[in-house]
Design brief:
The protein is of the alpha/beta class. The protein has 2 domains: 3-280, P-loop containing nucleotide triphosphate hydrolases (Rossmann fold, 3-Layer(aba) Sandwich), CATH 3.40.50; 287-539, Class I glutamine amidotransferase (GATase) domain (Rossmann fold). Helix content is 37%, strand content 21%. Strands 11-10-12-13-21-20-19-16-17 form a 9-stranded mixed β-sheet, sandwiched between helices. A hairpin with a 6-residue loop joins β20 and β21 (500-503). The longest helix has 22 residues, at 518-539.
Length: 540
Amino acid sequence: MAKFIFVTGGVVSGIGKGISAGSVGRLLKDNGYSVFMQKFDPYLNVDPGTMSPYQHGEVFVTRDGGETDLDLGHYERFIDEELTKNSSVTSGRIYSNVIRKERAGDYEGKTVQVIPHVTNEIKEKVYSVAEESGADFIITEIGGTVGDIESQPFIEAIRQIHSENSADVMFLHTVLIPTIPGTDELKTKPAQHSFKELMSYGIKPDVFILRADHPITEDVYEKICLFCDLPREAVVESKTVDLIYEVPLVFKAQGLDQYILRHFHLKTREDHTADWAKMCESFKSAKEKLSIALVGKYTALGDSYLSVVEAVRDAGYHIGTNVEVSYIDSETVKAKNAKEILSAYDGIIIPGAFGSRGTDGMIETVRYARENNVPYLGICMGMQIACIEIARDVLGIRDASSLEFDPETKNPIITFLDGQSENIDRGGTLRLGNNDCALTENTLAHQLYGQKNIVERHRHRYEFNNKYKEMFEQNNVVFSGIQLAKNLMEIIEIPKHPYFIGAQFHPEFKSRPNAPHPLFTGLVRASLENRKQSSAKKSK
């Protein structure tokens, strides 16, 4: 039977439960055990797909088309496993299922209540992923903080799971140990109150993970151990690190993996921790420096492009390069200032987005990159914007646009996917998840991937209009990746450019720290070469 680890948080949100959960998953996997992860979120949205990037950050897409919380991106990068839509469970999804069952008469006339009907639905989501994945460990993070009224059904559900499977359940509680402004004194009272709150729900934590800006002193450990009735080895520090991938090693050094295994009466099967440590050391020893501009419309919140930033940084680390990603609001880029804003960067990325706001600045960004031989990677909308710019400035179609931006355009270079124009609902109706793509031989894309057929994750409603394909090809644009079944253009490139690629899919979702995505690695290598050439010109 699977072992269940539930990760809760106290005091404040945003203290790194997702990183802690992913790090524990990494350690268990390096000890020879299979791991599957999921996230419970208490908001009433069925999924994050319709939520504002300014509030929620990026929407991470799973292989089977689930629009999920960004923490699932952390999970996949840490444990190097592909998760599913069942890894993301919201209150909205739970209540939708319960109401649907009630309307269908599945409860046979019973009064439908939070306990047992809502909690049973939550429990089913835990047990089903255990059966679906067949993993040795199921790690489930509970979003928000203990004491949040909207989280109570989830807390009750995991209490019941413990009651049903006490020997196979562990609770990890992550808390903040704050300091009073003007002092360096670490305060334990918030953690103690968080423990008390969790105990009031019938849950006693097995492990305490402490977050603090200052090193945890021994007297703090003693207070936590005494008040929470925990052995010293069950209280670990999650200190601030330069590289988030070091967190598993921080936990390893404190013996957390072995403590967890002893709790479940298990032993190490294999030990691959050294491989992860070696990777981190190589990342930290990166000497080269590189500057990449990320030009987007949601730059006010960095988490809106979390996976893109992690992907390009990880690609840089693998070739000994520290990549600094600078956010540039696309609305600030104009024809008159594009050079002034963008000339300081070695490469440019335009990531995915929706809506017309800021697209004029993106078009100017593409023009600058194309005309000045600056390495460029366009993702989803970034590919569509590149097609519009090429149509206007190379093909001479001055009114070229997208139906998303201008429904009345006479030259819709970007048009609706089949069936998308009739969709009224916005949630979960995009082209989502894994799709096949065939690469054209002797193209840059084929060279980067090193294979003919690939699978990538998508999240879009609009697509390149094939009516214009021949015109593009006649003007030195190559469609190097095609979804053959529906003849969808997936990758464009300009062969005579140092690096100009647009991808309709989201390569960032499949990038891993131990296996960076080839499109990002290609961008970094081309940007390094651009940097060298620019430096050589300046030195003359």
